[in-house]
Structures are given as structure tokens and as C-alpha cells.
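Final report, section 2: Outcomes. Of the targets proposed, Eukaryotic translation initiation factor isoform 4E is the one most frequently requested by collaborating groups, and we therefore present its record in full.
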Amino acid sequence: MASDASGAAAEVVDKQPHKLEKKWTFWIDNQSKPKQGAAWGNNLRKVYTFETVEEFWCLYDQVFKPSKLPANADFHLFKAGVQPKWEDPECASGGKWTVTSSRKPTLETMWLETLMALIGEQFDEADEICGVVASVRQRQDKLSLWTKNAANEAAQMSIGRKWKEIIDVTDKIIYNFHDDSKTRTSKGRYNV
Ligand code: MGP
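The predicted structure is given below as C-alpha cells.
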């Protein structure tokens, strides 16, 4: 009897959802049919905030695969409470590491590896990270990892190196400050 009871208890514990260290939000920005004159961000939508492994897999399987996106659309995974915009206070002094890919399956794999690394807290400087954006484009897809304090070179270099390991990239990747993107100064500030 006793062992039955403890077995049942163990089963109940097993069925508890696996909580993540923090909450995350998926966003979508579909500019595949842009309205003339519409401001940037007009189509940016917060989709769902989650905090368990089970919710993550359900959302990923059902919706958040870049192969499901038309050209000129973006998926974002950002920390809950942080908007994927330069204007958000967490992003305002930040920047992004960018990886490009001319092959759709590569974007798909790199996106999933990055999502798992973020929700699994694999970066030493996890506090420095705002989120990641997958951009499906006609010519070349893109993945960008947004971080908080662009001026903190040591933190950005450590994040860049770790990210390359995670997504298995050996080519150089470039870090841009959002402030430079605003003025369309496209020069990269760091590379790794
Ligand atoms: P982008 O998407 O960062 O450049 O910005 P990209 O990815 O090289 O261009 P794309 O055509 O492949 O998408 C493109 C433009 O969108 C910028 O020059 C801004 O006009 C606008 N924009 C992009 N972001 C991320 C923001 C933002 O966070 N805030 C505002 N206000 N505009 C933005």
C-alpha cells in the first residue's frame, strides 16, 4: 500500500509542468503586405508569454517555426516585459549580434538552438540578453541576438563567442549598436 501511495505521489510530481527560470514572450511582425506609409512596428504583435518547458514546445511546434513565415516577416523571443524595439528601456543602450543564412533549414536549426539556449539559461551573461529575432527575407534570412549594454565590450564578446558555439557557426559575426542602426551607420562595432 505504502509503495502504491508513494508511486502515485511520484507520478503526480512528474506531471507537474517544468518551470523555466524566467518568463519569455513570443512576438510576430508580419510585414509581408505592408501598408503604404505605415510606421515601423505597425504590425508587431505580442503573441504569448510562457514560463514552462511544455508551453514552449507547444508554441514552437504549432507556430514559431520560421519556415511557416512569409518573406519579410519576423519572429521574436524576448524576456517578458521587454519589447523588441530600440525604444524599450532595456534595449535602448543595446545592440545586436547578427548571423545571416542563405539556406532556410539553417535558419530553422539556428533559431531552435538559440531558443533552447535562452530558455535553458546557457549564457553566462544571461542578464545582458534581451532576446532573439528571426527575420525571413527574400535574399538572405537573418538571426539577431539583442543585448542590453552595447558599450560593455567584454560581455558582448563573451555572448558572441558562446552564441557561435551554440549555433555551430565558424564565420565571423558582427555586433551593431542600435544607435548606429538608427542613423543607418551600418558599421559593426565588434566582431568575433
Ligand atoms: P532593421 O530591421 O534593423 O534592419 O531596420 P534590417 O534588418 O537590415 O532591414 P530589413 O529591411 O531586412 O528589415 C530596418 C528599418 O526598420 C530601420 O532603418 C528603421 O527604420 C526600422 N526599425 C527597425 N527596428 C528594429 C526598429 C525599432 O526598434 N524602432 C524603430 N522606431 N524603428 C525600427
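Helices lie at 2-14, 53-62, 104-119, 153-167, 178-182.
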